[in-house]
Write a structure and sequence with these properties.
Structural class: alpha/beta
Helix content: 25-40%
CATH architecture of the largest domain: 3-Layer(aba) Sandwich
Largest sheet: 7 strands, mixed
Number of helices: 15
CATH superfamily of the largest domain: Aldehyde Dehydrogenase, Chain A, domain 1
Shape: globular
Number of strands: 23
Radius of gyration: 23 Å
Number of domains: 2
CATH class of the largest domain: Alpha Beta
Strand content: 15-25%
Distance between the termini: 24 Å
CATH topology of the largest domain: Aldehyde Dehydrogenase, Chain A, domain 1
């Protein structure tokens, strides 16, 4: 998932809208992977009320498909289908469930290119990154397929003669998942694969911006032999999202809610789920610090910053958001980071060599612009970028600002865009205090060659995940989640 291909041309690759339009969702090996129906109870259906909404390519802002705009009537039907499927699916052995999951994994990898193209079209992610996400997302299916036969219980030493104490693990029940647009494949498989492996049926409501990826992988799950109703995909526009979320959290047939998204929405869902005492998993917002100490390998730190900060055009929940650089290497790091960005290309994700795509929404684009304008007004200096890209639309130039301070919006809020603000610091204690000065605690990163410092700082950072001399930390075999207001796992 590292940004691929380092081109020497400046960020000026032209966008040929007409050419992209003709390529949108054509040229796939499997055109049947592009679905315009939701998937409920093993059937491809429309909304009960017949409504649809457009899926838009954020690069040229043109519709590329339509999907059902479902309401509470539809989500109730999906919950009912999942509840029915749960009865027989939980009775399967772990090995039987694993066999289906392994087949699903194989099909996803066989169709990696098609899944990547669909993803690029609907979310703007460069194709090389999209390919990486398909492999990453599929790895969760494989991992939990391997774990399915190993759902062990415990034998506990008895408290009295003639007794035996044992615990067993059983499926929790129907799971409801709400997933984001920035990883439209992996955020579904990360939730669906463990649920299915454990014997649970699941209903997924993908982001309104990126339903096509969800429907494509559901088609492959069906092809792998997953029984009807075990996996359900309910599509809905933003207008119906609140009502569907409320039904998911209040319906007594749903026993677990899993959500990836903003802290504000996560708090609402958690409060609603308390009414029926559902189990919850919440992966929420972040404000990740990225720290470069004087003893760091600066070149490696620059590459790690590129990978962490600018992957998916800066639109990931674990993106570096506050970049702290110690005074001794501040100037060197700043110059090298700016030089690398100037050599990277912006454009449609299907165009060869482009490493930055558009912001997926107008709101996201405006937030980046607002953060840049606020920082510059308060004294920050633009080292590279700093304005909307000449391609127009939702494209914004990858930007580096220096002389950033803690009173600027970009240090207080999660930018979710291609904006890196560099903050100079002097001492280790100073930077740890600054890094922890946030209500969020999802991920953190730092670069150092001092072994003693590595242990001290990794334990001092108030985050759920720490990357040490590494810009990408998520993997199928490691826990993922945060502390404080970044969620519950």
């Amino acid at each position: 998932m590292l940004l691929a291909r380092r081109c020497t041309a400046h960020m000026s690759r032209p966008l040929s809208a007409s050419r992209i339009l003709t390529r949108n969702l054509t040229g796939l090996k499997r055109n049947d992977l592009v679905k315009n129906s939701a998937y409920v109870g093993g059937k491809w259906i429309g909304a009960a009320e017949g409504a649809t909404y457009d899926v838009v390519d954020p690069a040229h802002l043109k519709p590329v498909g339509k999907v059902p705009d479902m309401t509470t009537t539809d989500i109730k039907a999906a919950i009912s289908a999942a509840h029915k499927a749960q009865i027989s699916w939980k009775a399967k052995t772990g090995r039987e469930r694993a066999t289906v999951l392994h087949k699903w994994y194989q099909l996803c990898m066989e169709h990696q290119e098609d899944l990547a193209k669909i993803m690029t079209i609907e979310c703007g992610k460069p194709l090389a990154e999209a390919r990486g996400e398909v492999a990453y997302g599929s790895s969760f299916i494989r991992w939990f397929a391997e774990e399915a036969p190993r759902i062990y219980g415990d034998v506990i030493p008895q408290n009295a003669a003639g007794r035996r104490l044992m615990t067993i693990k059983q499926p929790v029940g129907v799971v409801a998942a709400i997933t984001p647009w920035n990883f439209p494949n992996a955020m579904i498989t990360r939730k669906a694969a463990p649920a299915i492996a454990a014997g649970c049926a699941i209903i997924v409501k993908p982001s309104p911006e990126t339903p096509l990826s969800a429907l494509a992988i559901a088609h492959l799950a069906e092809e792998a032999g997953l029984p009807a109703g075990v996996l359900n995909i309910v599509t809905a526009s933003k207008d119906n999202a609140i009502a569907i979320g409320t039904e998911m959290t209040s319906n007594p047939l749903v026993r677990k809610i899993t959500f990836t998204g903003s802290t504000a929405v996560g708090k609402t869902l958690t409060a609603q789920a308390a009414g029926t005492m559902k189990k919850v998993s919440m992966e929420l917002g972040g404000n990740a610090p990225f720290i470069v100490f004087d003893d760091a390998n600066v070149d490696a730190a620059v590459e790690g910053c590129i990978a962490s900060k600018f992957r998916n055009t800066g639109q990931t929940c674990v993106c570096a958001n506050r970049i702290y650089v110690q005074a001794g290497v501040y100037d060197e790091f700043s110059k090298k980071l700016a030089t690398r960005l100037r050599k990277m290309n912006v454009g449609h994700g299907l165009e060869t060599g482009n490493e930055f795509g558009p912001l997926i929404t107008l709101a996201g684009f405006r937030k980046v612009a607002k953060h840049v304008d606020d920082a510059v007004a308060k004294g920050a200096k633009v080292l590279v970028g700093g304005k909307p890209h000449r391609l127009g639309g939702h494209f914004y130039e990858p930007t580096v600002l220096t002389d950033v301070t803690k009173d600027m919006l970009m240090t207080q809020e999660e930018t979710f865009g291609p904006l890196a603000g560099l903050i100079k610091f002097k001492t280790e204690n100073e930077v740890i205090e600054a890094a922890n000065d946030t209500p969020f605690g999802l991920a953190g990163y730092f670069y150092s060659s001092d072994i003693a410092r590595i242990y001290r700082v990794s334990e001092a950072l108030e985050v759920g995940m720490v990357g040490i001399n590494e810009g990408i930390i998520s993997t199928d075999c490691a826990p993922f989640g945060g502390i404080k207001e970044s969620g519950l796992v």
